[in-house]
Structures are given as C-alpha cells and as structure tokens.
Amino acid sequence: MREQLKLLRELQKIDLTLKKIKEERDRFPKEMKKLDEREHIEKERIQKEREKIESLEKERRQKERNLNTEQEKIKKAEGRMFEVKTNKEYQALLSEVEAIKEATSREEEEILQILEEIDELKRDLLKREKEVTTTLEKIERERKKIQEKMDEDDGLWKEQKERREALSKQVESGLYKLYNTLKEKRQGVGVVNVRDETCQGCFVNVPPQMFIEVQKNNAIIRCPNCNRILYWEGDGKTK
Q1: How distant, in Å, are the alpha carbons of 15, 117, 180, 193, 226 from that of 187?
Q2: Are 201 and 222 in contact (CB under 8 A)?
Q3: In the chain, how many domains are there?
C-alpha cells in the first residue's frame, strides 16, 4: 500500500499543477484584454491631443487668411483716399480704414494667442508621447511575458497529462475512484499531508494514535473531519 499511496501523492501533485495551469488559462486572456485596453486608452489620449493641436492649426490658418483679406481691404481703402473729392467722403473712408485696422489688430492678437497655445500643447504632447512610449513598451513586455507563460503552460499541460495517464493506470481502480471522488468534493485536493498532528486539508487535529499510523505510510487512512486521504511527508518512521 505504500507504493499506492506514493502514486496517489504524485497524482495529487500533478492534478494541482493542472488546476493551476487551468486557472492561468482562464486568467491570462483577461489580463491580455486589460493590456489591450490600457494600450488603446494611451493611444487614444495621444490622438485626442494631436487632434486638438490640428484643430487649432486650422483655426490659425483661417484667421491668417481672414487677416490677409482685411489687410487687402486696408490697402484698397487707402488707395481710394487719393480719389475722394470731399472731406465727408475722406472722413468716411478714414473711419472705414480705422475699423478694419482694429479688426486686423484683434485678429493678430488672437493668432498670437493660438500660436502660444499650440506651442504649449506641442511641448506637453512631446512629453506625453515619451511617457506613452515608455508605457507601451512596458505593456508589450507584459504581453510578451504572458504569452511566453501561456506557451510554457501548454507544454507543461501536455507533459503532465501524459504523466497522469501513465500513473492512473498503476493505481488500483477502487482507490483511484475514491481519490477522484474526494478530489471533486474537496476543491481539487483528495490527498493531504499531516503536520504537527494536523490535517493540512482542513487544519483539524487528528487523534494521536492515527497520527502514528499515518507516519508509517503503510495504509490508506482518512481524516476524521474532511475525509481526505492522509500521508506523512517523511521517511515513514514514527517520532
């Protein structure tokens, strides 16, 4: 029975490894999705800042076109001053020129304000792009690390599955069935170690005489509380 117990312990280790791999298989896609979302947010933020700058650039260009148009009006109005024949016409034309000049002055001031805002946004964007580049590189490293672990898990899963199949054929059918039943009922753990007279599955003390028998590893002994199969992780000699 010692050999059968040893096989069960090995099966338990394999099943715990497979359980961990399955949990990682379920978790890794979610982690990948979170990384994709972080990457999208970072890129979208940069894109919005670029679009804002582009919008201001368009506004600046439009105002410069308007300014050129107003300046052409001033030149034409000033040219007509030599053609007027009355003081009234001259004063009216002079008022028109002054009004246009005031408008162009406001336009020039607004253009300068836009240029200052653009310069500030570009400085911020440059800084932000460096930060985003660093963040995206970190995301890519995390993504690569997860992918490598997924590939590693795939290889380990196949290896452990093959090992499990080979071991299960060496376990007595009744004992194998009992182990699987306990494993299903006890969160994947059907065989546990006893340490300091305590079952490491439910952490309830086992009777002293039972503990002595468990340390021999010569029989299938089950915890009185959780019903799991107990074993002693030692040389088989009692203390």
Answers
A1: 11, 61, 11, 16, 11
A2: no
A3: 2
Calculate what percentage of the chain has a pLDDT beyond 70.
97
Q: Are strands 198-199 and 221-222 parallel, antiparallel or unpaired?
A: unpaired
Q: How confident is the model at residue 236 (pLDDT cuts 50, 70, 90)?
A: very low
Q: Distance (Å, rounded) from C-alpha 49 to C-alpha 75? A: 39
Neighbours of 61 (CB within 10 A): 12
Whether residue 144 sits in one domain with residue 116: yes
Residues 6 or more apart in contact with residue 232 via CB below 8 angstroms: 193, 194, 214, 215, 216, 217
Burial class (CB in 10 A: 0-12, 13-18, 19+), 231: buried
Let me know whether 43 and 125 are in one domain.
Answer: yes
* pLDDT digit string, tens, across residues 118-171: 999 999 999 999 999 999 999 999 999 999 999 999 999 999 999 999 999 999
pLDDT at 161: 95
Please indicate, yes or no, whether the overall pTM of this predicted structure exceeds 0.70: no
What are the phi and psi torsion angles at 193 (to 5°)? Answer: -80, 155
Helices (H), the chain: 2-80, 87-168, 173-185, 208-214
Range of the domain at 111: 27-168
Give the length of the chain. Answer: 239
Does 125 share its domain with 209?
no
